Amino acid sequence: MKVAMLVSGGVDSSVALYRLKKQGIDLRAYYLKVWLEDDAKFMGSCPWAEDLRYVRDTCAYLKIPLSIIPLQQAYYRHVVQYVLTELQQGATPSPDILCNSRIKFGAFLHAIGDSFDYVASGHYAQLRQWKNTTELLCSLDNQKDQTYFLSQLTQAQLKYLLFPVGDTVKHILREEARRNALPSSERKDSQGICFLGKITYPTFIAYYLGKQAGKIIEKKTGKILGMHHGYWFYTIGQRKGLKLGGGPWYVVKKDCTENTIYVAKEEDVHSYGCDSFFLRDTNWIPYLPKDGLLQVKIRHSPEYLEAVFQSSPRPLVVLKKPERGIAPGQYAVLYRNQACLGGGKIVLPLSE
To answer: Max Cα separation, the chain?
Structure first.
């Protein structure tokens, strides 16, 4: 069996690589370079140099050949442009979901063709074969589970994948890395969006979309509370970064035409909660779910929301109770009995 292993320089993919090596599998490691160097230099940081150093040290230590695959143009075309378009439209994009479906298990699978039997990664997820289909199951580590980010993968992609660490909780995985002296054993977990590295998300947005002054208005009273630098920096439910006194304040609405952000105090936020939404651009693993009770995630989190799903005439999710922080463009991912069923982008019903 020949396996192409995606490595990132983190402890998860390092342990996954080590486990496959122990099994005597014919392995080659691949590091996907997705950031544009000129942009990274302009923003004052190189998001991939440190990662690549850990990747090289790990592969040398385990005596596994390494290839670096440049996918910057594909990433810009399929992920960055998507993110920028969504932000300009006032939506909340999920770039890591697109990175997995279009790049790691999309453009990369296309690049290596049929030269490998499987592609492995350090994602926290599990796979199960059932009736000629591949099910995507949650990891044993509920805190680290990454099925939310894998929810747009298709059967054609899943049948080629391996997730060697999906059956392990993080602290045990970290101990395994230390016990086997892997170079990344003490490296901190990465945070934020996969391609940004040490570059902050606001820096990325400002570089491409710039800044434009706008008003921050209290939704309840219509009072102007302050100014902001552009609605594209904010998402529904956001609390941090508003820099307003007398809070905490939460973003409850955005007016893209007027470049206005509406906020509410914590005790008023429930008034602007959402209890139902439609789904578009759906992907189902492995089939359209049956109508009825299920669980849903509206962001990467260990928490599930109870909901009722209705498939026709268009996919509809009705929450058991209103939830704040639901924004158009976010992905809602459906679950039943620890199986990820897939999902789609949130479309909110028409309101004021």
So the answer is: 67
Alpha carbon distances (Å) from 330 to 119, 224, 307 = 28, 28, 17
Alpha-carbon gap, residue 304 to 134, rounded angstroms: 23
Per the CB < 8 A criterion, the answer to whether 206 and 251 are in contact is no
Render pLDDT for 72-121 as a digit per residue (tens, 0 to 9): 899 999 999 999 999 999 999 999 999 999 999 999 999 998 899 999 99
Instruction: Tell whether 232 and 326 lie within a shared domain.
Output: no
pLDDT class for 352, splitting at 50, 70, 90? Answer: very low
Threshold 0.90, pTM exceeds? yes
Q: One of 138, 194, 274, 340 is an active-site residue; which one?
A: 194
Q: Is residue 333 part of a domain?
A: yes
Of residues 122 and 241, more confidently modeled: 122
What contacts 323, CB < 8 A, 6 or more positions away? 273, 274, 275, 298, 305
Cβ atoms of 152 and 101 closer than 8 Å: yes
| Sequence-separated (6 or more) residues with CB below 8 Å from residue 291 | 308, 309, 310, 311
Instruction: Kindly report the number of other CB atoms within 10 A of residue 279's CB atom.
Output: 23
Is residue 46 part of the annotated active site? The answer reads no
Range(s) of the domain holding residue 304:
274-347
Helices (H), 63-169: 72-75, 81-88, 95-98, 108-112, 155-158
Counted domains in the chain:
3
Does 59 qualify as catalytic in the annotation?
no
